[in-house]
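PT: before anyone asks, these are the final sequences, not the draft ones from last week. 386 residues across everything. Please model them as a single complex and drop the result in this thread when it's through.
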Amino acid sequence: MRTDDLIEALVQDRAAVAGKPRAALSVAVTSGALIAAILFLTVLGYRPDIATAAETYRFLFKFVFTLTLAATMIWLIFTIVRPEAVPGLRLLALAAAPVLIILAVVAELSVMPSSTWMPRLIGKNWWFCLTVIPSLAIVPLAALLTALRRAAPADPGLAGALAGLASGAIAATLYASHCTDDSPLFVITWYSIAIGLVTIVGYFAGRRWLAW
Amino acid sequence: MLMRAATAGDEAAYRTFLKAVTPAIRSLARRNLARYGLSAGDAEDVVQDTLLAIHLKRQTWDSDRPIGPWISAITRNKFIDQMRRRGHRIQVPIEDLAEVLAAEEPPAGLDGHDISRMLESLNEKQRNVVRALAVEGASVRQTAERLNMTEGAIRVTLHRAVKTLSAIYRESDK
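LR: through. Structure below.
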């Protein structure tokens, strides 16, 4: 096929231009989070003592962590939809949520006696945490990946991994309102593993479906 | 800008735009191939793959931004894909399209390397439509009459064919 013929084929192909990737991403984030929230509220629901829990720093900090992670990852995803966008220094945003949780862990270790560290780390619900977070992340991840198919990320694996981090963080935010393990030691261990699993899935899904 | 008119559905402007950027893409591709001691003959694969991506990803160009870096990024990406397919591990510097706009003329009748195979990999219906519209220059209506299809069906088939062509490049990546 000659290049001129290919150009002619492209000119003749007047299929509607796909929608703008950023608009699609906004819809994906909103609807993905909303569906996950409905799912969460119908199947699990928040913990019964949420009013008293909301007065403790540990409980509140879980949301500071997960929402920071969600916000930074969603922001990063929006910056990489164009092929010429190089994330560069913006990737430093990846560090925001980890820095927060590490500071919280340091604080926890300094105020709690060492004999309580392990029980706090293991908690009561770790297995539940590892299953619920990835399950709740499925819908937001699928929505984000679908929207990203309209984009042209220079690195499809990175785009998929960021989508995994964002969906894992959205799921973790919901789960945090149900879980009674509030210690940062629990959060840094099990939330990270759960979100990490979603990120790995996102990475491979990105390489598979976001290549263009 | 032509691309703006083209996204608004102006066929002639789109043709002019694609023809205008092709030499620059070709020269970027050749320059990169030469850097790896490869023949410029392979450039046409990169050119066609890039044109397909420009077409299928045109919604990712932000009309407030210059189009040069957008096109160079796509070309660079497609060049890297091409090299990976050949088992090279590479680093490509980011170049601005504007620097290479003074491109040499292509030899007449330039074919892509694998491109003769590409038309064959379309299904029969797609191949007939592409051949009629692109190679023979028939109008959509003529093609519809000749192939006994509706004009809508012709357009759908053409769009699928374009996507298939782009997928062929991607699948041969593995």
